[in-house]
Amino acid sequence: MTIEKSTFENLIPSQFISFTFPNPLSTDPQLNPYGNSLRIAVLDSLQPTSDPPQLAAMLVPKYREDDWIFSTENGHLQLLSNLPGISRLILVGNPPHDDDYFPIVYNRPILDDDTIHYTKFEESMTPLLLALSPKSTFINGLPEIPFVTYEDNVIRSVSVKKCFGSCVGEMLVEDVEIDSLDTVREFRRRLRFKRMPNLVQTEMQIFHNNGIGDMEFRLDTGCLVHPYLPPMVASLSLIARYLEECVCSGIMPRVLCIGVGGGALLTFLKKHFGFQVYGVESDEMVVNVAKQYFGLVEDELLRVCIGDGIEVVEKFAAKHNRGKMASGGIGDVENNQNVDVFGGLDTPFDIIMVDLDARDARNGLGAPPMEFMRKQVLLATKLALGKHGILVVNVIPIVKTSSTQPQQTKI
Questions:
Q1: Could you read off the pLDDT of 305-359 as tens digits, one per residue?
Q2: 310 phi, psi to nearest 5 deg
Q3: Residue 40 · residue 59 · CB < 8 Å
């Protein structure tokens, strides 16, 4: 790839360019924490944030160059979105392996002995970083380009399965060991999508006998470790009396979960409350992964259909509340009058839980998607609920934070 000298002279909204560059410390292996060839990735923010613009650089953690967080444009975009005031973020690290490189095993290195090496390496990158700076950054002399760091709680990880879904695209199942304040080691199984690599779609606790990478793990479906799921379940206390009356009357409360992911929420609701759980997932491969790697089991209490969750709600509301839909000024959902949802389910839901995130990383990390906030969808959701029903939504406000680690605010 040939790069013109003027390519980086101006900020261009959302411009993303990556290229290889010789490591300036390649002749001094004792001080070189990376390989002889480096991957340089440059991303400009959607809008300039200051005048003169501010730049930052980030060293890709050693041995994590294959992680989508650092090797893809979407991951880079999410890193930049968590750096308020930065107009251009430059990533520096080893080149990732080919796409067919699998499995990927990561062990967090001990950095105490390498601190001086990384300091020397950062100093050696100064000429390149200045060359990648827009002209406007030199208004007041040579700009200072700080190095920011990425930190998360992953101690080690091993890829379990990588596959492709028709709707969500490429996805990864991985087992990770995370930092723990206790003496007991903590392990998780995670599901991530390449389109939004910094967002963990599903996380479940797993137990081991020896250690990660050399044995089988068993899932713990009896607890919720993903931070936003316990508050979603706790919201059911708002209709606790009604749910108790249903159970005492021999009526099984009905829950519709829009967005299945790995199925942790669905399995928990069935196992702990004995609810009749219905799930809607747009991608069949996601459901297959949930069944194979996250313990999702369909039976008389748990059923999953493949389709658009918003359309399912609209179809259900149109079928059972046709008059109300029309009187509300919305009208029937086209061709939905004779649709049987979940094999002819003819009673409203007691609970609807929505766990959908935005599909485009360029719009920021957010949930639910804007499509769900349309008046027609909200009305349909209301009509799909019973008199005492409750709507529970996972909300991620699109908020800039000062941390380089993506922050999730979920309700």
A1: 999 999 999 988 887 766 555 555 444 444 444 446 677 677 899 999 999 987 7
A2: -65, -40
A3: no
For helices 309-320 and 375-384, angle between their N-to-C axes, nearest 10 degrees: 60
CA-to-CA dists, residue 408 to 13, 45, 173, 403, angstroms: 25, 20, 20, 11
CATH 3.40.50.150 in the chain, residue ranges:
229-393
Which two tokens mark 73?
A: 């444009």
From residue 115, alpha-carbon distances to 9, 31, 32, 112 in Å are: 32, 10, 11, 6
Q: Is 81 helix (H, G, I), strand (E, B) or coil?
A: helix
pLDDT in tens, 13-51: 999 999 999 999 887 777 788 999 999 999 999 887 778
Contact partners, residue 267, CB within 8 Å, separation at least 6: 221, 294, 295, 296, 297, 302
Residue type, 89: L
pLDDT tops 70 at residue 410:
no
Residue in the structure block whose two tokens are 């996250």: 294
Q: How far apart are CA 118 and CA 408, in angstroms?
A: 30
Structure tokens, 151: 């930190």
CA proximity to 187, closest of 228, 151, 215, 162: 215
| CATH class name, domain 229-393 | alpha beta
Q: CA 194, CA 192: separation in Å to the nearest integer?
A: 7
- CA gap 377, 379 in Å, rounded: 5
